Amino acid sequence: MMIIILASSSTPSGMLCQHVRLFGRKLVRRRTVEPREGSEIGLARCLSTLDLVALGVGSTLGAGVYILAGEVAKEKAGPAIVICFLVAALSSVLSGLCYAEFGTRVPCSGSSYLYSYVTVGQLCAFITGWTLILSYVIGSASVARAWSSTIDSLTGNHISRVLQGSFSLHVPHLAKYTDFISLGLVLLLTGLLVLGASESALVTKMFTSVNLLVLSFVILSGFIKGDLHHWQLTQQDYEEAKSGSNDTYSLGPLGSGGFIPFGFDGILHGAATCFYAFVGFDCIATAGEEARNPQRSIPLGIVISLFICFLAYFGVSAALTLMVPYYHIDSDSPLPQAFHYVGWASAKYVVAAGTLCALSSSLLGSMFPMPRVIYAMAEDGLLFRGLARIHARTHTPITATIVSGTLAAFMAFFFELSDLVDLMSIGTLLTYSLVAFSVLVLRYQPDQVLRKNEKMEVEIIETKSELQASSLESVPEAGTSKTLKSLCYPVNTIPTRKSGHTVYGCALLLALLLTILCLILAHWPSHLFSVDPVFTTVAGLLLLLILGITFIIWRQPQNPIPLRFKVPALPVLPLTSIFVNTYLMMQMTTRTWAQFGIWMVIGFAIYFGYGIRHSVEETNDQQPPVSSSQALDKNVPSAELV
User: Fold this and answer.
1) Are 277 and 65 in contact (CB under 8 A)?
2) Pair 426, 585: CB distance under 8 Å
3) Helix (H) or strand (E) holding 245
4) Does Glycoprotein appear among the keywords (predicted)?
């Protein structure tokens, strides 16, 4: 029998199966959260909780407040933009709580890239990191464009007319002209980031403070000069607007009046776009290796910054739509024109100063995490090793900073803001979903050795798990009913390898079912709500399956290792986050998905051509395996998380 087995493994088909199996294992390799050996120079731990809050608020309160709010209110939602920001904020809060738990577990650079690496595997981690880079590059370029547009509006659009006349572009999908102002600004801030994290944080705090003061002035002014009638427009108001306008094309889409002139669809489409406004808090997670007390600072920084940002977005959008009827809002410069509309023309200079400070801090906040993600991927070998170089004096990832800054400057030089927002949202929503999935899976796994000081707790947990698992092995199998009963009413109170695999498989199935449900809700809502028997039956079956699988996950034992912060209401909260994020992704256009596909093709070429062969885990796989007891004795974390 042994000879037959050996012979069969040496056949061409057997060799092919073995190579496919080894290749598949490479794609799901997981890394441990330990400092890489041989890295003499690391990032400096110099950031406080206040620095992280300023970084999160500064990176978020930029174009979303001063540019995007006017565009969405005028063309998609009207006064219901406040609901759009509420929906987008809810999605960000759900994701933010997931980031907060991982920030306490994994206090290292890399954000959701690293979270996916230690939980799901290498290929998923690369996809996460690559989409993060896309989001940060587009975020930096779009904010730089908004900064340039604000300067242009202060000069009466003189700069844009000169550039359009001298450096106009006649290429489809590119900007009308090359933007030298945004190019120079991105390169200037790249030089600031090279100087050090503490210097960048200080500048960010200064800009953010001015920004919050100006936003407070805008909110108070809007409630003083606003008119509640602008939230209750009638057909007569529309007729007067048409008759009083010399150019009807200056008016936005009129809708059907009232607080929600574009209906429920307008709120959903507006929320998908408004989600861009809350992108930024995840940059806090990328600073885990530079925070003084990451287990405390990262959760606090994320929660506080999201709360401040929601109040600001809600207040400013409400003030804007109260001051001006939504169809009269200027999409390019909404707040200055709003003050002109209510007779406070001089206030536009205060708003302009606040806009520049806000966009400057937002640009810094978008550019700060980008080299950290690139550095983490390069240090793991998934991107080119030269990108992991750290400056000996400033302790910053200098090569990654220069490369990412140059790429963002190139994007800002050639592309328009309106063509980039939805593409960035896809990348961000995808990474948020992966982080929520990772939290869901990781909480139910045994042997979660993420830090050396957890050695004693893990030894106790492993001992109890082995005893309980061995006692279960003595029980004979008793059919399907016995299996379902064991899934819904497990005997163990501590996660075992079997329960961990159960949660992992159920989570993958739930992600698939939620995607199908979101696809139906996004593209065939009329069939569903018109009680179409086919769609209603399919949706009902999907809901039953989702509830049943969620119940199975809920019944599995959770890992009892104490953390500074844990996501509440598992597994409901991460699953809700995945559902909301997936539904918002379904609102994107086919063109946006095609652009995202092109970016992913470039990423896969890099990964399969370089990263999979130069990964640090490739070297680890070639070393002799370490047993669990040896790993604990040497304070080496187990690589088997799932």
Assistant:
1) yes
2) yes
3) none
4) yes
The position carrying tokens 């450096």 is 167
pLDDT for 261 equals 85
The residue behind tokens 């306490």 is: 104
The answer to whether residues 119 and 91 belong to one domain is yes
Contacts of residue 186, Cβ cutoff 8 Å, sequence gap at least 6: 140, 141, 144, 363, 367, 405, 408, 409, 412
Cβ contact 207:361 at 8 Å: yes
The Cα 426–Cα 142 span in angstroms is 15
For residue 305, name the pLDDT band (cuts at 50, 70, 90).
Answer: very high
Q: How many CA atoms lie within 13 Å of 277's alpha carbon, on the beta-carbon side?
A: 35
Q: Answer yes or no: do 460 and 419 share one domain.
A: no
Single-letter code of the amino acid located at 210: V
User: Which pair of structure tokens corresponds to residue 188?
Assistant: 């200037």
Helices (H), 444-496: 455-473, 480-488
Alpha-carbon distance of 148 to 126, in angstroms, equals: 33
Number of domains in the chain: 2
Q: Is residue 111 within 8 Å of residue 132, measured between CB atoms? A: yes
Count Cα neighbours of 195 within 13 Å in the Cβ-side half-sphere: 11
* Closest listed residue to residue 299, CA positions, set 445, 133, 106, 428: 106
The type of residue at 184 is G
- How far apart CA 600 and CA 481 sit, in angstroms, is 44
pTM listed for this prediction: 0.79
d(CA 256, CA 406): 46
Q: Are 160 and 177 in contact (CB under 8 A)?
A: yes
Residues 436, 458, single domain; the answer is: no
Give backbone dihedrals phi and psi of 557, rounded to 5 degrees, phi first. Answer: -70, 140
Polymer length in residues for the chain: 642
Span 48-74, pLDDT tens digits:
889 899 989 988 887 667 777 888 888
pLDDT digits (tens, 9 = 90+) for 228-251: 888 888 777 777 766 665 544 355
Q: Are residues 508 and 394 in the same domain?
A: no
Distance CA 88, CA 93 (A): 9
- pLDDT tens-place string over residues 73-89: 888 888 999 999 888 88
Contacts 24+ apart (CB under 8 A), 112-116: 112/282, 112/285, 112/431, 112/432, 112/434, 112/435, 112/438, 113/373, 113/376, 113/377, 114/33, 114/376, 115/434, 115/435, 115/438, 116/434, 116/435, 116/438
Q: Are residues 391 and 512 in the same domain?
A: no
**Cα–Cα distance measured from residue 439 to residue 458, given in angstroms and rounded to the nearest whole number:** 19
Mean of per-residue pLDDT scores for the chain = 79
CA distance 6 to 13: 13
What is the predicted pLDDT for the residue at 286? 80
Same domain membership, residue 343 and residue 317: yes
